[in-house]
Structures are given as C-alpha cells and as structure tokens.
Amino acid sequence: AEQFLMVARKIPRAQQKLRCLQFKMDFALRVEELRGNLKLLIRGIQQVCASDRFAGMLEYIFHLGNLLNFGEGVEYTEWVKSITISSLAKLSFTKAYDGRISFLQYVIQSVERDEPHLALFSDQLPLITKCSKLSVQSLVAEHQSLKSGLRMLINETQKTAIFKTDDADLREDLAESRESMRLYAMEVEQVLDGVQELVNELEREKKHFLNYFEEEDVLPIDELLGFIASFSEEYSRLYHTYLSIIMGNTSSRKFVYSTNDYQLAIETSKELEYLLETEFNAHGQGLHEKVSSIESAIPVPTVRSIRYVATLRNRLIHDREMKALPDRQTFIKKFDDAMVELNILIEKKRLDAGEVPAAPECTIS
User: Fold this and answer.
1) Among 125, 167, 277, 354, which residue's beta carbon has the most beta carbons within 10 A?
2) Are 295 and 204 in the same domain?
3) Quick check: pTM over 0.90?
4) Which residues form the FH2 domain (predicted)?
C-alpha cells in the first residue's frame, strides 16, 4: 500500500484518474441496466395503450359508474367526462349503501354478465407489474450521472493534455493514458447517445399515454402504471373468488402460489386478511389480531391454520436469518385448509341469510 501511494504521488491528478477508472469499471453494467429498464418501461406503456380489453374495461366502468350515480337515461356527461387512472385505486374502497359489496365487486359481476372477455384484460398487460416498480425519476437521475461521468472523462483528457513534465517516461505514459481516455470517452458518448434516444422515446410514449387516456401531466408515469398494476391484481383476485362462488365449488378455488417463499407468505396472509375483514368483519392491525377479533365464530382447526400462516409470515419478515419457509408444502396446505373452511362458512352464511348483493352507489372521477 505504501509503495502504491509513493508511485501515485508522482502521477499528476491521480485522484481524478482513479475516479475515471472506477467509472470505466462500472459503466458497462450501469448502462446495460439503465437501457434494459428504459426498454421495459417503453414496452409496458405500449402494452397498456394497445390493450383493447383494458380500454374497454375503463369505458365499462365509466358508464356503469355514471349509471349508478345519475340513473338510466340521464344526460350525465355534463358532470363526469371520463374516468382517471388514479381513480382505479378507489374502486375497492367504494362500498354499497349496505356495506356488503364494493363497487369493484359489482363491476366484476356486471362485466361477467355483459362483457366477459374484458375480465381477462390483465392477459394483455404481462409487463405492467414489473414496470410499476421502476422509478422514472431514478432512471433519469442515473442517465444524468452517466453523462456527468462522460464530462469527467473529457475534462481529464483535456487536463492531461496541458500538463508539462521533463520526465520522458512519464510524458510517454501520460500521452498513452490521454489517448486511451480520449478513445474511451468517444465510445461512452456513442453509447449514451443511444440511451438518449431511449429517453426521448420514453417521453414520446408517455405523452401518447397521457393523450390516449386523457390524463393531465400531474403524476409520474410510473405512479400511473402502479395504479393500473394494483387494479389488475385486485381485479384478478376478486374475479377468481367470484368465479369460485358462482360455480358452487369453493373447495377447488385456484390460488396462484408464488415461487418466492417471502412473496408467498405475504400474498397468502393478505388473502386471509381480506376474507376475514370483508366477510367476518374482523379488525386489527395484522392477521393475528384479525383472527383474534372473531375467534369464536371460526372453528378451532381453522384458527390454528390461520395462525400458522401468520406466524411464519411474521418470522420471514422480521427474522433476517430466516430465508425460506421451513416446510413449503405444509404452509400451502394450512392456507388451503383455512381458505376452504372460510369459503364454506361464507357460503353458508349467505344461503342462511338469503342475501342477494345490491348494486352500489358510486362516485368516481
């Protein structure tokens, strides 16, 4: 280390040259990741704009919401012009007047009756979830950082050119280093020109997206994509629940199990929490508290299965040394058992009460 420092002291602007070297070592991976994320966002936006089913779903929700708000035959377009992307997040929380069904659940029932092909709109948006996790602001910042690195290279090349020394060997080394940096700077500039084209294309696709959906340029595009991704996931989940009920086959309800244990634990817990909240009026912060609030209304084996899921979910989140479920198959079986019993209880409760879901009043904008 001491010898390195002694040699480095003889090199003019050694610190700046080390920064240039570090930039060169990192550049290929950084630019490849940036390029991939930009392309992903562009393709994701294009998929959304090209999806006739998603467009049809928005139109259906728009007309259904206006019908419920203003009634049939009313000239409602004077009050509500269109549905915004951000309003999709409200659909699950807009309840019917009796509190037993959300507007989104009513949409699902109506779509299945009138336009069943629209229910599969998420099949046309395979990239939406990945896109929604990207931050355009972060991508732009990374692009600017790489451009700053290029300016650093060019500046160092220029500084090296004006340095004078009587040491012939050092003069030769500096000339070689300068030429190497100059050529590399040209290469980096060419690559970043290609990245700039992707940034420009992303901006064009964003403008097309905003124009197509009549959105104001207020929210970041990734936030709008996030609303669509959340809506797609929630719709698919409630849609499959609805299908299992109307088919009278609650025990065969399909649940898509994530291959990632952490994600599996999170998704199964959310599924159970949702059922306990919406169907059994459970309350509390987590799955343990929710099941405790209604423990007397659920069979003991079901309570145990739910607590098993909740306990392992909490351990996976809070125990850093726990990287996976100790027994994945047992975990899935406990979840399945709980879901089967809960759905049976739900169906029995509805049949006993003779309930028929009512159309909700709804305000969306």
Assistant:
1) 125
2) no
3) no
4) 1-261
